[in-house]
Amino acid sequence: MSYKTSLSGSWWRKHRFFKLYMLREATVLPLAFLLCSLLAGVFSLQDAERFAQWQSFMGNPLIVAVHLIALLASLYHAFTFFQLFPRVMPIRLGDKTLPAQWLVAAQWLAVVVIIAIVLWVVSGGEP
Amino acid sequence: MNVQTRAIEVTRYSPERDKEPYLQRYDVPFDESTSILDALNYIKEHIDATLSYRWSCRMAICGSCGVMVNGIPKLGCKDFLRLYDHTPETPIRIEPLAHFSVERDLIVNMDEFLTHLEAVKPYIIGDNVDTASLPAEASLQSPAQLSRYQQFANCINCGLCYAACPQFGLNPEFVGPGAIALAHRYNLDSRDHGKTERMPLLNSKNGVWSCTFVGFCSDVCPKGVDPAAAVNQGKVDSAKSMLIQLFKGSQLQGEHQ
Description:
The structure holds two protein chains of two kinds. Chain A is mostly helical. Chain A folds into two domains: 10-73, 3 helical TM bundles of succinate and fumarate reductases, CATH 1.20.1300.10; 90-127, no CATH class. Chain A has helices at residues 16-26, 28-44, 48-59, 61-88, 100-122, and strands spanning 92-93, 96-97. Chain A has a two-stranded antiparallel ribbon. In chain A, a hairpin with a 2-residue loop joins β1 (92-93) and β2. Chain B contains nine helices and seven strands, in the order ββαβββββαααααααα. Chain B folds into two domains: 5-108, Beta-grasp domain (Ubiquitin-like (UB roll), Roll); 110-256, Fumarate Reductase Iron-sulfur Protein, Chain B, domain 2, CATH 1.10.1060.10. Chain B is 36% helix and 14% strand. Mean pLDDT of chain B is 92; it is low at 251-257. The chains are: A mainly alpha, B alpha+beta.
């Protein structure tokens, strides 16, 4: 008769690699909170008083802190995603595969471009 | 001459005698070139002939000597005592590969992996042609065509990736990194026509979508296969295959109407 152990719930605490994986997966939690906050903002648009309440909620230092964590979490998630992307979708041109660093750099460049566009739009489109 | 020794703890389990595995300690002499496998061989030859473990080639090609060393899947022949700075108080711990059932001492039952491996049809499937009758040129392959799958063809079926995969640990029905990497290897082969036969299993619940890209399988792979990349490239293939099926399904319905 053979012996089999089952995986305990604390399996991820046994190695740094697994802890980083759990951290990557856990980035969804503050992001989910941010999305719920934004969704609540959309619903509060129905009524001026509720919108004012939502604005004061968003200005609460604790909420701002959680949203800052969400920003850091999404940057960390983006970092891991961008690193993994060239392995999942290697891009071949003819006989050659594009170097992974190029793809990682291209994704960060896209982030910078998108942030610049958003900032430009938010600032009222002034050049 | 002053011979250095290292303390080693090895899992012992005899199904006739023991209710559960236990650790047994040995002190083995070592130098710069002593591998984990050398240490096990030393124990077997000089200390305790009852110790059971698998090994064969001693050069990381047969894939037999996979064990957990301090909790990390390793090939015994490719891992060295000198890499572990351990004192007599904290021995190097050698255990059977995780997520498989233990038959005896360090020997695990790899049937689950082998069943999955067989299920993905890891061989070239022709196009219902008798390949023997084809001219040799029919199976020629350019270096570019070879380079598409070569990395995934380096798998030696050692099972370290399965011992590294928590998803396989939680659900042994998961086809798993090694078998999916080999399925992908044949799907990418220009001589192969078997992709449609392999995709239903890869598309299934226990196929590529059971993977959450922990990625530890690729970290422990002794041959640089990067099974995590293969599995996640398989997700891209699976998504395409599902879309095609959806399209074909609606086309078929259209024909019936």
